[in-house]
Amino acid sequence: MEQLRLVAVSAGLSSPSSTRLLADRLAEAVRGELAERDRKVEVEVVELRDLAVPIANNLVTGFPPPALAAAVEAMTRADGLIAVTPVFTASYSGLFKSFFDLISPDALTGKPVLIAATGGTARHSLVLDHALRPLFAYLRALVVPTAVYAASEDWGASGDEYTEGLPSRIDRAGTELAGLMAARPAGEAGETDEIAEFEGQLADLRFD
To answer: Where in this chain does the record put each NADPH-dependent FMN reductase-like domain (predicted)?
Structure first.
């Protein structure tokens, strides 16, 4: 059985970053669940802070530098995606949006995606449903039901009888993404890309 590929995109700006920490925790939850299903997974983390200049260059020139092209290729070829952003002005960060602006609208079609965000206060948690879900719906990705928001006070908190703690939410979201990834044959992402490319060629013909 082929090894699955998981890519986690972190848009954290600082180092160390709570956004990167959340991405790592989510990736580990997915890896652990897949291990219980006897599936091996290769995990790659894309740090957008390291690609800020290449992203800007791509936006103004239309051509991705090699490091950015490699990151986009890894994401579009992955069997599953974790996307984590800090909250800026009640939405995803500009760096996060700029990166996904460079992705072909068909590149993530049908790909399982886990969305997550970090912020200083729990009142920004609606960013998951008001900003991130619509973005990935537009990209026609398959977003798992559980999205994870981590406020500053969530780190180290275990929750209460009414609210799940952050570790429980991470485990539940990781289980959902692992289930969708395990249900897809490894390498299917590449086949999806070829289909999407063919559909794009047909669309070009129709509009000529």
So the answer is: 5-155
**Residue-level pLDDT at 155:** 80
The domain at 4-207 falls in which architecture?
A: 3-Layer(aba) Sandwich (3.40)
Reference 46, options 88, 87, 102, 1; nearest CA is 102
Joined together, the tokens standing for residue 91 give 């939405």
- For the purposes of burial, counting CB atoms within 10 Å of the CB of 158, is it exposed (0-12), middle (13-18) or buried (19 or more)? exposed
pLDDT band at 12 (very low <50, low <70, confident <90, very high): very high
Hey, how many other C-beta atoms are within 10 angstroms of the C-beta on 103?
Answer: 13
Pick from 196, 191, 188: which is nearest to 104 by CA?
Answer: 196
* Calpha distance 85→95 (Å, rounded): 9
Tokens standing for residue 14? 């600082």
Pairing of strands 142-143, 41-47: unpaired
27/185 Cα distance (integer angstroms) = 19
